[in-house]
Amino acid sequence: MRATALLFLLATAACFALAAAAQPSDFVAARNVWRRAALVDYEYGYRKYCACHPDTPPETIVTVRNREIVRVRHRPVDSTNEVPAKAGSEHYYWTIDELFELIDSARARGAAVRASYHAERGFPTEIHIDYDKNAIGDEIDVVLTTVSPLTR
């Protein structure tokens, strides 16, 4: 019985180690795909889940021109109305390159990070970060809703 339990624990640990080892290469491959896409002008939307919006967060739409955020607005669930973000608050939001930096930085800090990436264009489609498993409210939970190239 003890041998079976030990074998199970070792197998479980090996699975976690393999998953952790596989993640950075997925991250690097996805970031490289995104870089090759060379989108400098695009718009993307995301929903950020938190205690304030646990089930139905508004969609945040970020417009990026020449790799810089130029416009941010929020669209409440079940609405077509958009509410502009406060002028001068663009630094609180991310470009897609900055989402990759967020993931990389969280890993470097030892946070629990799960992310998935768009197969063809490489951008993150879901990002889940928990900086401290013993703390509440430090998590980042973002799901991208759309990414669209913009013409100049």
Fill in the keyword field for this structure.
single chain; alpha+beta
Model description:
The longest helix has 36 residues, at 2-37. Mean pLDDT is 85; it is low at 4-23. The protein is an alpha+beta fold. The protein has one domain. The radius of gyration is 18 Å and the shape is globular. It starts with a helix and ends with a strand. It is built from 2 helices and 7 strands; from the N terminus they run αββββαβββ. The protein has a 7-stranded antiparallel β-sheet with strand order 4-3-2-1-7-6-5.
Q: Tell me the major beta sheet.
A: 7 strands, antiparallel
* Rounded average pLDDT: 85
Main sheet: strand order: 4-3-2-1-7-6-5
Distance between the termini: 67 Å
Overall body shape: globular
In N-to-C order, the SSE pattern is HEEEEHEEE
Overall helicity: 25-40%
Radius of gyration: 18 Å
**Structural class assignment:** alpha+beta
Strand percent estimate: 25-35%
Let me know the number of strands. 7
How many domains comprise the coordinates? 1
Low-confidence stretches: 4-23
Count of DSSP helices?
A: 2
Describe the protein's topology.
Blueprint: H1 2-37, E1 42-49, E2 59-65, E3 68-75, E4 83-84, H2 96-108, E5 112-117, E6 124-130, E7 140-149
